[in-house]
Amino acid sequence: MDYVKYLPVALTSAVSAAAIASASWLGVAALLVVVCALCGAVALGWPQLMGVTARKSLSAVIMAAGIVAALGAAVVNQVEALFFWSSVSLAFGVMVVFAIQVLRGSGRPHRLESTLGACTGVVITTTAAGWIAGLRYPAGMMETANGDGLSGLRVRGLVPYEDWEFWGATGPGGELSVVALSAFVMCVGTAVACVPGRDALVLPLVVLASAATSITVALLWGELTLLFAGVLGLAGGVLLASFRRLLILQGPPEQLLSRLAVGAAPVAAMGALVYFTERLLIT
């Protein structure tokens, strides 16, 4: 198997994750720009990857849905509304996709493939807003009234992260942020996913390496529960392993834009996992 053909996919995934980590240190505005660019990469190549017709109009819908979701996550004032615009954008994006298919008239080829492929692209770009929502979500660990809960699993960091912000431990508002941690996990997981070998060996290695990376950084970082770090690492590893499996089965995309879209897609989808893991496991 010629693994060189997969290089653009891996580079896109690694660069996207690194850009998210860097932007998270600069603040919400910088992260918004990166997420919008990520949505653009997916939108331009996804219809081409799916081999659908009406590519320009469907690319516009996919990109617009992602940008609206990202803007919504960046400007809302209530925690409960951080992912609200992602839901709205997803709903309207799917509606517009169906409307485009209707306007194309009857007898058009590959109508079902176009609809399903475009809807999948809308799902991916709207979930990318989770990166922004995750950065803005107040992720500081709070003790419960009786001292129980997840805070009991808190670990002491091995380095004084309060005086060393290289890991991006603090967000723009001073609260603990897990965006840089998640992006770093995606970088490591992508590198492991590039290891040539049988899927039976490489796929578990991707999951284990991602989880181990997340837990190790949590130990260095401090103020993160091992449960949270483990779940986040496992989620990222499973996501990357799934994309690797699908990519190996289908083969490398022929067009450059399609390869960029495949590389950017798992990083974009990870946004939702970051946000909802925070909401579920950090109180």
Automatic annotation (TrEMBL):
Keyword Transmembrane helix belongs to the record: yes
Transmembrane segments: 20-46, 58-76, 82-103, 115-133, 176-195, 202-221, 227-244, 256-276
Superkingdom to which the source organism belongs: Bacteria
Keyword Transmembrane: yes
Keywords: Membrane, Transmembrane, Transmembrane helix
Protein name: Permease
Organism of origin: Nesterenkonia sphaerica
